[in-house]
TrEMBL record:
The protein's name: Diaminopimelate epimerase
HAMAP family: DAP_epimerase (MF_00197)
Subcellular locations according to the entry: Cytoplasm
Record-linked NCBIfam families: DapF (TIGR00652)
Residues holding substrate: 20, 53, 71, 81-82, 156, 189, 207-208, 217-218
Catalysed reaction equations from the record: (2S,6S)-2,6-diaminopimelate = meso-2,6-diaminopimelate
Keyword Cytoplasm: yes
The organism of origin for this protein: Celeribacter arenosi
Pathway assigned to this chain's UniProt record: Amino-acid biosynthesis; L-lysine biosynthesis via DAP pathway; DL-2,6-diaminopimelate from LL-2,6-diaminopimelate: step 1/1
The entry's keywords: Amino-acid biosynthesis, Cytoplasm, Isomerase, Lysine biosynthesis
Recorded family membership: Belongs to the diaminopimelate epimerase family.
Source lineage: Bacteria, Pseudomonadati, Pseudomonadota, Alphaproteobacteria, Rhodobacterales
Assigned EC number: 5.1.1.7
InterPro entries the UniProt entry points to: DAP_epimerase_AS (IPR018510), DAP_epimerase_DapF (IPR001653)
Length: 277
């Protein structure tokens, strides 16, 4: 009797960093599979798997791996700090090394093991208005909009607002409005930061293409850059986000972010699900 191969699905991993959750596809050695349609379908928390971002690992000719990021609305994200830390841990576990290089849209990043956490150098912040990007030549340290936010690029755009009480902020209402403000031609991520001490910030976030999340690594980096630039904090801070704590350290060689990672499960998208796309 002739054996027919079982239809094969698409393996993935579910991980999170402080509750910022990810579907991770490993496309090393084969063509990339993610399209906006796939990202939207898998990202649907009712009909798919659900995620804040999808990260696709690809073979690299310059680093240990290449990594691409997608939001759950199907848009591309140029940076994702927490997914970078999660994937770095996977690769370090796989290779037995304590250091990994990862090429992303914003350049090649270095991540290292830090006890049971992972640190990544997210690179230098971008402060040129047209590189953030903004639609007009304005002062990036004081954007001309209500709330006096700071604009910071971390490979993706961020608008950081300083508030007296982050718990009282309507993150969804205010965040969505700022995300789509015409000052941001590529939309923006929005952070609401409450400075508690020179070395401690509480931050809540509205992510471009995703909405409220429990943490945003690139947003945490943008926040420490904005706070230190305004003279509100030192360059090294502990930051409490909705999902836990990160450590940020804006050094000479870039903004380092350290925090936990978690592998939730390994599974497979079925051929039935993929065929329906
Ligand atoms: N959660 C991420 C940021 C994801 C990207 C963002 N939504 C965008 O479109 O720029 C992080 O940990 O940095």
């Amino acid at each position: 009797m002739q054996q027919t191969a079982a239809p094969s699905g698409l393996p993935f991993l579910k991980m999170h960093g402080l509750g910022n959750d990810f579907v991770i596809l490993d496309s090393r050695g084969r063509p990339a599979v993610t399209t906006p349609e796939l990202a939207r379908a898998v990202g649907d928390r009712n009909r798919g798997v659900g995620f804040d971002q999808l990260a696709e690992i690809r073979s690299s000719d310059v680093a240990d791996i290449d990594l691409d990021f997608w939001n759950n609305d199907g848009s591309r994200a140029g940076a994702c700090g927490n997914a970078t830390r999660c994937v770095a841990r996977l690769i370090m576990d796989e290779t037995g090394q304590d250091r990994v290089t990862i090429r992303t849209e914003r350049g090649t990043l270095v991540a290292v093991r830090a006890s049971d956490e992972v640190s990544v150098n997210m690179g230098h912040p971008v402060r040129d208005w047209d590189q953030v990007p903004l639609a007009q030549d304005v002062d990036v340290d004081h954007l001309p909009m209500e709330g006096d936010p700071v604009a910071v690029g971390m490979g993706n755009p961020h608008a950081v607002f300083f508030v007296a009480d982050s718990g009282a902020v309507d993150v969804a209402g205010w965040g969505a409005q700022v995300e789509h403000d015409p000052l941001f031609p590529a939309r923006t991520n929005v952070e609401f930061a409450e400075v508690r001490a020179r070395d401690e910030i509480r931050m809540r976030v509205w992510e471009r293409g995703t909405g409220i999340t429990l943490a945003c690594g690139s947003g945490a980096c943008a926040t420490v850059v904005a706070a230190a630039t305004r003279g509100l904090t030192d360059r090294k801070v502990r930051m409490e986000v909705d999902g836990g704590w990160l450590t940020l350290d804006w050094r000479e060689d870039g903004v380092w972010m350290t925090g936990p990672t978690a592998l939730v499960y390994r599974a497979e998208l079925t051929p039935e699900f993929l065929d329906a796309l």
